[in-house]
UniProtKB/TrEMBL annotation:
Domain Aminoacyl-transfer RNA synthetases class-II family profile, chain residue ranges per copy: 38-341
Protein name: Proline--tRNA ligase
GO cellular component: cytosol
Single GO MF descriptor: ATP binding
Known function: Catalyzes the attachment of proline to tRNA(Pro) in a two-step reaction: proline is first activated by ATP to form Pro-AMP and then transferred to the acceptor end of tRNA(Pro).
Enzyme nomenclature, EC number: 6.1.1.15
Gene: proS
Annotated HAMAP family: Pro_tRNA_synth_type2
InterPro entries: aa-tRNA-synt_IIb (IPR002314), aa-tRNA-synth_II (IPR006195), aa-tRNA-synth_II/BPL/LPL (IPR045864), Anticodon-bd (IPR004154), Anticodon-bd_dom_sf (IPR036621), Pro-tRNA-ligase_IIa (IPR002316), Pro-tRNA-synth_IIa_bac-type (IPR004500), Pro-tRNA_synthetase (IPR050062)
Subcellular location, principal: cytoplasm
Domain of life: Bacteria
Organism: Alloyangia mangrovi
Family according to the record: Belongs to the class-II aminoacyl-tRNA synthetase family. ProS type 2 subfamily.
Alphabetically ordered keywords of this record: Aminoacyl-tRNA synthetase, ATP-binding, Cytoplasm, Ligase, Nucleotide-binding, Protein biosynthesis
Stored SUPFAM superfamilies: Class II aaRS ABD-related (SSF52954), Class II aaRS and biotin synthetases (SSF55681)
């Protein structure tokens, strides 16, 4: 993409309404624009990152054997009356009346609808296990929307639902989700720690929240520092293997890590003092086993091996897709702007032309641009007439992890400059070598 043809409405001033750094940078980098409280338009740069995050989630869900689908945002109240949640949900639910005076609502989550789909089409244990998921907009009329996309009213969420014959099977689905989430967040350059969370009114159920440590997080968390040393890395897990998934769960949840809702001072005190940490975290996901909570009242049953009709065991598993943009920025920035991890960066590399209009510099930039594009990479080429300082400031603000700087002086010696956004370190090398390096970083190889 050439910047002169793109839509990147960068703000010079720091918007006064933004209290935290991710919100400030998302506004300044022209990623989002508020349309009303807690509701945002996703401008091209923000939309690009949102799509990257979504792509990673789809890839990892597929790897775990989960099936994508899409449900409507507007739902009939009737299903929610069946489960009893129409009255329970309270003010956070946006209720709508249609022209026929029917009660509708904007989905805050979709357990009821998916359970209805299940009961309409599945009737035998032979069709299980089954895990369906979607990535879809949700609406919760939060009392205090704030921090930009972190606590919106309209927000983008991955919500998945497992259907299993037995509690054991459903717990395997739970573990499988935990494993796939660990991989998912790591690919986004994040460390998200599974923490035992509050199971709500129905006791005995399993639930973990995934938290990214950040000073601006809304949750207070307590953990054993050893947990931050764990890495999922690129291990190959057979998601059908109960033992393998269980082993990962045990590894990642056996150390103390809890939110304030489940925190227990007495148990925490058993962690050696030098490893005890109190911090703040951003909730980026949650997995939940809730058994037959919806399947029983809604009649989602299957015939088991002995011919008996039994309610299915279910769980739901969410990822805060739009919130993740904020969380990633909170975890990765400096005082000049965002520093995108390679896995989610909106463009792979920036190209800065120090002397636009100089025939040689223009030609060199065009050649680098063409080579990167041919490799399947997406560069953002600042081909505007802005002075160098302004170009650097924009690149730093929008946070592309790599920048190639091209100027007449370097070209005389046959070199361009390759700069890491994260370390600020620069290296001079021939244009082809710079392209080669970028290709290596992103794991792509020249074709032919
Ligand atoms: P919170 O405690 O932050 O209100 P929640 O526990 O009610 O969240 P879930 O129902 O678990 O939320 O939803 C799954 C994920 O969706 C959460 O882990 C979070 O990342 C994200 N999420 C929830 N509410 C919002 C919101 N208002 N804005 C943006 N993301 C949200
Ligand atoms: Mg939650």
């Amino acid at each position: 993409m050439r910047l002169s043809r793109y839509f990147l409405p960068v703000l010079k001033e720091t918007p006064s309404e933004a209290q935290i750094v991710s919100h400030r940078y998302m506004l300044r980098a022209g990623m989002i624009k508020q349309s009303s409280a807690g509701i945002y338009s996703w401008l091209p740069l923000g939309f690009k990152v949102l799509r990257k995050i979504e792509d990673i989630i789809h890839e990892e869900q597929k790897r775990a054997g989960h099936i994508p689908m899409l449900m409507p945002t507007i739902q009939s109240a009737d299903l929610w009356r069946e489960s009893g949640r129409y009255d329970d949900y309270g003010e956070e639910m946006l209720r709508i009346r249609d022209r026929h005076d029917r009660d509708m609502l904007f989905t805050p989550t979709a357990e009821e609808l998916i359970t209805d789909i299940f009961r309409s089409h599945v009737g035998s244990y032979k069709d299980l296990p089954l895990t369906l998921y979607q990535i879809q907009w949700k609406f919760r009329d939060e009392i205090r929307p704030r921090f930009g996309v972190m606590r919106g009213r309209e927000f983008y969420m991955k919500d998945g639902y497992n259907f299993d014959l037995t509690k054991e099977d459903a717990l395997h689905a739970y573990n499988r989700h935990l494993v796939s989430y660990l991989r998912t967040y790591e690919r986004m350059g994040l460390q998200a720690i599974p923490m035992r969370a509050d199971s709500g009114p129905i006791g005995g159920d399993d639930t973990h929240e995934f938290l990214v440590l950040a000073e601006t997080g809304e949750s207070e968390v307590f953990y054993d520092s050893q947990i931050t040393e764990l890495k999922f890395g690129d291990r190959q897990i057979d998601y059908d293997s109960v033992e393998q998934c269980q082993a990962v769960l045990e590894e990642f949840t056996s150390r103390y890590a809890r939110t304030d809702e489940t925190h227990d001072e007495a148990i925490f005190a058993e962690v050696p003092e030098e490893r005890r940490r109190t911090a703040r975290g951003i909730e980026v996901g949650q997995i939940f086993y809730f058994g037959t909570k919806y399947s029983e009242p809604m009649g989602a049953t299957v015939v088991d091996k002995d011919g008996n009709r039994v309610p299915v065991h279910m769980g739901s598993h969410g990822i805060g897709v739009s919130r993740l943009l904020g969380a990633i920025i909170e975890a990765s920035h400096d005082d000049k702007g965002i520093i995108w991890p390679e896995g989610v960066t909106p463009f792979h590399c920036g190209i800065v032309n120090l002397k636009q209009g100089d025939a040689e510099a223009d030609a060199a930039c065009d050649a680098i641009y063409a080579s990167l594009t041919a490799l399947g990479l997406e560069p953002l080429y600042d081909d505007t007439n802005e002075r160098a300082g302004g170009k650097f400031a924009t690149m730093d603000l929008i946070g592309l992890p790599w920048r190639i700087t091209v100027g007449p002086r370097g070209l005389k010696n046959g070199v361009v400059e390759l700069t890491s956004r994260r370390t600020g370190e620069s290296e001079e090398l021939p244009p082809e070598a710079a392209v080669e390096r970028i290709a290596q970083i992103y794991g792509v190889v020249a074709k032919g």
